[in-house]
Design a protein that fits this description.
Blueprint: H1 30-33, H2 68-77, E1 82-83, H3 101-108, H4 127-130, E2 153-156, H5 160-172, E3 177-180, E4 196-199, E5 206-214, E6 217-225, H6 230-240, H7 258-262, H8 269-272, E7 279-285, E8 291-294, H9 300-306, E9 316-323, E10 330-339, E11 359-360, H10 363-382, E12 386-393, E13 399-408, H11 412-429, E14 439-442, E15 464-470, H12 472-475, H13 477-492, E16 496-501, H14 506-513, E17 526-533, H15 543-563, H16 581-586, H17 590-600, E18 617-619, E19 632-634
The structure holds flavin-adenine dinucleotide (FAD) and 2-acetamido-2-deoxy-beta-D-glucopyranose (9 copies).
Length: 637
């Protein structure tokens, strides 16, 4: 069964303020609020300068939890879109009223190749980050299913009014508020115990504008709703013919949500910059409940912060305008493998590009060739491309390397000329890739928004830690060799060690991406984003074991940190326990970001782990794990 949500092309509202889509014209009015003070707007001018609310956000068991009557009234305001969902995994637990083994089998089978989990109001990709309180398993003996770190109520937003009412209600009632778009966040930023969730997933619309001007920018652009996923924008591009926008590689990631707000890398990043670099303006509901536009001419601090400063922090974005290019983009690409496995090994995906036959080599040759690839990665970035270089250990000293190189606008001969030096270097190292084969494929290909990794419990739902490898390593190969040695050791310890070569330098970011934004300065000077995964699921582990596994991996990555002190890591793909995360994600921008946060959200309404200003709060969990399964409280002291 395939459930796919069709794109709704709405005609833009012209001439009325900065509205991008019709759903933004439906706004909360004083008249609608009437005597319902629970949804009245906040007043920034009279807000206290320091937080004055209760120590913990109100939980369902607290006396101050809103009455059924208040919730019902909120439901009326939001047009009946208030949901009180239970976790879908309940179907797998015999002691739950929702128990149904047919449904459970569906969740573990057909649902994983459909849009089912994408369209679920609670589902978050990271099961351990939520608290693993209702795992979908065939055998649930000895386990329970509770609401846990999932929100209690969800507003399924279909207008700006719905978002405003939810924001005002949560702020006035001292509730925890979370924002969920696709639920793809790796550390469960879109989950939270006892929370009211604003679900932006169904705010869908995309429209190309042949001519758009914003400050010095004059050229094509696209209006994009918060709920747009990469595949929907790809479909729109494919339909329109000759147009290009910068998107994520993974097609179900929320390109109008967390992806763009936290930075956003993809296949065109070394050529056109990050998702955040494309933004020309954003429409956002701020913590006071007001609907504003942020761009270079108005609300400039918000415009700075929303471009890379992290989702779930400064407001709820409803739509944006991003840069576009009046041309079709094709991408040259190829895949190659080498392995220490003597016979049968599992060959990872070629990512859609033609692959040469795997080359079987001994262990020392394998690591020599690995180093040769790392050295070459800078060339990929400098040519505007994106490189994957992943080592997967398969047991018994068997390692498989898969390399995929993609270069926008590199047709056949140009691409061959580019990669020939790499295969020469690999041959010198002892890896003779025979008949490398490549293709030149359209960047925008129609799809249905289904991937085998975007559901709970899938391969992407694994513990990992990342680090950006700075350009300086390529100027001093002693350091690069030391990094390669750490990666080798990590693979020997059973971790999957992946590298993504991309580089959104200030030059490729262009204007206005290169005006001051919150994008991590370390990303302007990077060559590789290195991500090290524990391969086995951690959501099934007892707390003590989870802690031990995390510490073990952290200790390994600390060696990379020591070798790259000038660098940091990527907010959207990072450890929930990243040490000194403020500097790691934002470098010298952090101070300004914190000032903006305090100015626009004095109520500290928006909270998610590792976001700007989040350090004053903590989720108090019974097992002490860094999950969302506990009340959100002020830190002591
Ligand atoms: C399978 C997979 C593949 C990925 N591939 C890539 C990739 O190719 N490139 C890349 O850069 N990253 C990638 N990521 C990371 C991705 O950028 C983050 O997970 C990002 O948080 C996803 O945003 P979302 O809106 O889809 O998810 P959500 O979990 O719904 O949201 C994540 C965060 O953003 C906030 N947020 C969401 N919508 C809004 C909004 N409208 N207004 C304000 N805040 C909002 C939420 O509060 C939350 O804090 C991938 C993640 C997964 C799980
Ligand atoms: C907001 O607060 C300021 C300062 O107290 C006050 O002057 C103003 O009237 C308030 N605005 C609204 C809309 O209540
Ligand atoms: C909100 O109202 C709709 C329409 O009346 C109803 O179907 C839904 O169950 C209500 N939500 C809650 C949480 O009661
Ligand atoms: C279980 O779910 C299936 C599929 O939705 C449905 O046909 C069946 O009636 C359900 N069984 C019970 C006992 O509710
Ligand atoms: C189910 O899990 C329990 C607890 O881990 C275990 O004792 C039992 O053998 C398992 N049952 C099956 C059929 O695998
Ligand atoms: C949420 O709202 C959309 C329309 O905006 C609707 O298609 C969808 O079915 C709703 N989801 C749930 C779970 O109510
Ligand atoms: C796209 O561009 C090509 C080459 O310039 C042209 O032949 C084609 O007609 C264009 N297609 C559309 C849909 O504009
Ligand atoms: C490793 O090799 C041994 C002996 O040949 C075999 O029994 C075992 O299954 C292998 N393990 C893996 C993970 O392949
Ligand atoms: C290269 O890096 C090594 C290890 O960090 C350091 O000792 C050495 O001084 C560096 N060399 C240069 C020329 O910077
Ligand atoms: C920003 O990008 C524009 C357009 O590419 C370019 O002309 C300008 O020189 C860049 N400015 C900076 C400071 O990099």
């Amino acid at each position: 069964m395939r459930i796919s949500q069709p794109l709704i092309f709405l005609s833009p509202v012209l001439g009325v303020g900065a509205l991008n889509f019709q759903y933004e014209a439906t706004q909360l009015t004083e008249q609608e609020i009437g005597d319902f003070s629970a949804i009245s707007f906040g007043n920034l001018s009279s807000a206290p300068s320091a937080y004055q609310g209760p120590r913990c956000k109100i939980q369902p068991e607290d006396a101050d939890w809103p009455s059924e009557e208040l919730w019902a009234r909120l439901n009326t305001t939001v047009g009946g879109s208030l949901l009180k969902p239970y976790p879908v995994g309940a179907a797998c637990y015999p002691d739950r009223p929702e128990y149904n083994s047919t449904t459970c089998s569906y969740l573990l089978g057909p649902a994983t190749t459909s849009r089912f989990f994408m369209d679920d109001p609670l589902n978050a990709l990271t099961t351990w980050g939520e608290g693993a309180t209702c795992l979908q398993l065939h055998n649930t003996t000895g386990r329970t299913c509770t609401q846990g770190g999932f929100p209690v109520y969800v507003v399924n937003a279909s207008s700006v009014r719905d978002v405003q009412a939810a924001v005002n209600f949560a702020r006035n009632q001292n509730l925890r508020l979370v924002i969920k778009n696709t639920g793809h966040d790796f550390i469960a930023k879109s989950s939270g115990r006892g929370a009211l969730s604003v679900w932006t997933h169904f705010l869908k619309g995309i429209e190309f504008l042949p001519e758009y001007s914003m400050d010095e920018y004059k050229g094509p652009a696209a209006r994009m709703s918060a709920g747009i996923e990469a595949w929907e924008a790809q479909n729109a591009m494919a339909d329109q013919g000759n147009i290009t926008v910068v998107l994520s590689l993974e097609v179900t990631v929320g390109n109008g949500g967390g992806w763009v707000l936290g930075g956003g890398h993809g296949p065109l990043t070394s050529l056109r910059g990050l998702g955040a670099d494309q933004v020309l303006s954003l429409n956002v509901v701020t913590a006071d409940g007001r609907f504003v536009t942020a761009d270079l001419n108005q609300n400039r601090d918000l415009f700075f912060a929303l471009r890379g400063g992290g989702g779930g922090t400064f407001g709820i974005v409803t739509s944006m305008v991003v840069k576009a290019w009046p041309e079709r983009t094709n991408i040259g690409g190829l895949t190659f493998y080498f392995t220490t496995g003597p016979g049968q090994v599992t060959i990872p995906s070629s990512r859609g590009y033609p692959a040469a036959a795997p080359v079987h080599v001994d262990t020392e040759t394998f690591w020599k060739a690995y180093r040769a690839y790392l050295l070459f990665a800078k060339e990929i970035v400098d040519a505007g491309g994106f490189g994957f270089g992943d080592v997967t250990p398969q047991g018994n000293d068997t390692y498989v390397f898969v390399g995929t190189i993609t270069l926008p606008n590199y047709p056949s001969d140009k691409f061959r000329a580019f990669y020939t030096p790499l295969f020469n270097a690999l041959r010198e190292a002892g890896v003779n890739v025979r008949n490398p084969n490549h293709a030149f494929l359209p960047y925008a290909q129609r799809g249905i928004g289904v991937t085998p990794i975007s559901f709970p419990g899938a391969a992407a739902d694994r513990l990992f830690i990342s680090r950006l490898l700075p350009r300086g390593l390529w100027a001093n190969t002693t350091r690069l060799d030391a990094v390669a040695a750490v990666n080798r050791r990590n693979a020997e310890m059973g971790y999957r060690v992946t590298t993504r070569a991309y580089g959104p330098s200030g030059v490729v970011a262009g204007y206005p991406g290169n005006t001051t934004s919150a994008v991590n300065p370390a990303m302007r000077d990077m060559v590789i984003h290195c991500v090290t995964f524990k391969q086995e699921p951690v959501d099934v582990l007892p707390a003590e074991q989870f802690r031990a596994e995390h510490l073990r991996l952290r200790a390994r990555i600390n060696e990379l940190v020591a070798l790259t002190p000038e660098s940091g890591t990527y907010f959207n793909e990072a450890d929930v326990l990243e040490p000194d995360w403020q500097r790691s994600f934002w470098g010298h921008h952090y101070e300004r970001l914190l000032k903006v946060k305090r100015a626009v959200d004095p109520w500290q309404l928006f909270w998610a782990p590792n976001t700007v200003g989040s350090e004053e709060w903590e989720v108090v969990t019974a097992d002490g794990l860094p999950t969302q399964n506990g009340p959100l409280c002020r830190k002591a002291g």
